[in-house]
Design goal:
The complex is a heterodimer of chains A (221) and B (222).
Chain A (H helix, E strand, L loop, with lengths): L6 E5 L4 H12 L5 E4 L7 H6 L8 E4 L2 E4 L1 H11 L11 H27 L2 H22 L12 H6 L6 H8 L3 H4 L1 H10 L3 H6 L3 H14 L4
Parallel strand pairs in A: 1-2
Antiparallel strand pairs in A: 1-3, 3-4
Helix pairs in contact in A: 1-3, 4-5
Chain B lengths: L8 E5 L4 H12 L5 E4 L7 H6 L8 E4 L2 E4 L1 H11 L10 H13 L4 H6 L2 H21 L13 H6 L2 H12 L10 H12 L1 H4 L5 H19 L1
Parallel strand pairs in B: 1-2
Antiparallel strand pairs in B: 1-3, 3-4
The chains are: A alpha+beta (221), B alpha+beta (222).
């Protein structure tokens, strides 16, 4: 990579992981170059920037690559620390923020994928798990405006991109997020009032189209 | 030892868990006095389940009554709560690199350990790829953290005993002095350091435990 000054983001339009990085950059008002990757034909740059996982997103800052979306978000928060802090300052609150962001990371995408990939009993099991996940997050959110409290924070950034996948989860598995986790549903709407989120999140219908495309690709019907 | 200024630190662990070892090493670098509770993983204590209701796993650090779970998160909490004897780099980019390898370093190792044939070959390619990159991280340094052992070293530190044990059981050497001189040297320096030497269980005991887990896993597959 040329040691070019500036910020570049290697990404894929519908990726909730990429969207985390985009939201963090927007919250901080950082100018950057967005590069859309073709995931079936990954660029030389991507393979060089992320030789271990060969995945997006990758943030390249002054020629140096940062991989893994939550690591990227913490990096953005630390470098552009003068504006819109995403992490709390208290060590225990920070540990809690990291824990729940990591929980979203470990659970939501995988379980969500099983909702559209599987059928019958297996799908029912995935649905049960997704409801449990949403209810745990609901309990964590409580009556707060955001997961971060009064300010939009790390866990909010980690979880909000998945809210545009709710429609797909609901349609594939036949349940309602609002029905099982009303506070999360309200929080999702509140987040969309933020410019960084509104401009970044994919339209839920477009996400559903993408899921349908994946289903065909994996031979699920 | 940093004595309790009304501070109570308890670590719930399991003797052979590499995740628990990370926390022990961090607590020791920081010279934090703590109480250790050994859990029976086949019969978890009510206290553990109360402190880690989400995953019900070790390690869990309890500090003045509040619980923190997930080893890497515990490490960052320890760094931020006890300011002396820093384990994290100051530079955000170096932090990002250390955080990346903390989880990525072990990628493929378990698959290599428990698979055969083509699957194992693929896992091995991935492992070697990662070790080549890790080797580069050690250029000009004694440890991943620089002059001293830090977060990066203790996060990937389980490799220093895990890989030799995997190699012994599978009868396949991955980290040789010829292929990975820096990594090989790091493994020796790390294992022989005062920090690690006095805290790890006996190699034979660990080896026996890994073999048992390996046999059980292989049996389930066949």
């Amino acid at each position: 990579m040329a040691s070019e000054k500036g910020v570049m983001l290697l990404d894929f339009w519908v990726s909730p992981f990429g969207q985390r990085a985009r939201i963090a950059l927007a919250e901080k008002g950082v100018q950057y170059e967005y590069k859309e990757e073709n995931l079936t034909e990954k660029s030389e740059l991507l393979l060089k920037a992320n030789p271990v996982h060969k995945k997006i997103p990758v943030l390249i800052h002054d020629g140096k690559p940062v991989c893994e979306s939550l690591i990227i978000v913490e990096y953005i928060d630390e470098v552009w620390s003068d504006k819109a802090p995403l992490m709390p300052s208290d060590p225990y609150q920070r540990a809690q923020a990291r824990f729940w962001a990591d929980f979203v990371d470990k659970k939501v995408y995988d379980c969500g994928s099983r909702l559209w990939k599987l059928k019958g009993e297996e799908q029912q099991a995935a649905k049960k798990e997704m409801i449990e996940i949403l209810q745990l997050l609901e309990a964590q959110l409580g009556d707060k405006k955001y997961f971060g409290g009064d300010s939009f924070g790390f866990v909010d950034v980690a979880f909000v991109p998945f809210t545009s996948w709710f429609y797909s989860y609901e349609t594939c598995a036949n349940f309602s997020v609002e029905g099982v986790a009303p506070k999360v549903a309200q929080w999702a709407k509140r987040c969309l009032e933020r410019e960084s989120v509104a401009k970044t999140l994919s339209d839920p219908k477009k996400v559903y189209e993408f899921v349908c495309f994946l289903k065909k690709k994996f031979g699920v019907e | 030892m940093e004595e309790a200024k009304g501070e109570e630190v308890t670590l719930f662990g399991f003797w052979s868990s590499p995740f628990v070892h990370r926390v022990i090493w961090a607590l020791n670098i920081k010279k934090i006095k703590y109480k250790y509770v050994e859990e029976d993983l086949s019969n978890k204590s009510a206290l553990l389940l109360e402190h880690n209701p989400v995953y019900k796993k070790v390690p869990v650090l309890v500090y003045n009554g509040i619980a923190i779970a997930e080893s890497l998160i515990i490490l960052e909490f320890i760094e931020e709560t006890w300011k002396e004897n820093s384990i994290m780099p100051q530079d955000p980019y170096e932090k990002a690199v250390a955080r990346f390898w903390a989880t990525a370093a072990g990628d493929g190792l378990w698959q290599f350990f428990i698979t055969e044939g083509k699957e194992r070959e693929e896992a091995l390619t991935s492992v070697i790829n990662n070790f080549e990159l890790l080797e580069k991280e050690l250029i000009g340094k004694n440890f991943f953290g620089g002059d001293r052992i830090g977060y990066f070293d203790i996060s990937v530190g389980w490799i220093s005993y895990g890989v030799p044990i995997f190699e012994e059981i599978t009868e396949f050497k991955i980290i040789t002095e010829q292929k990975f001189p820096l990594l090989h040297a790091w493994m020796e320096a790390f294992s022989n350091s005062e920090l690690v030497r006095d805290t790890l269980p006996l190699r034979e005991k660990l080896s026996e435990r890994y073999r048992k887990v390996w046999e059980a896993t292989m049996q389930k597959k066949n």
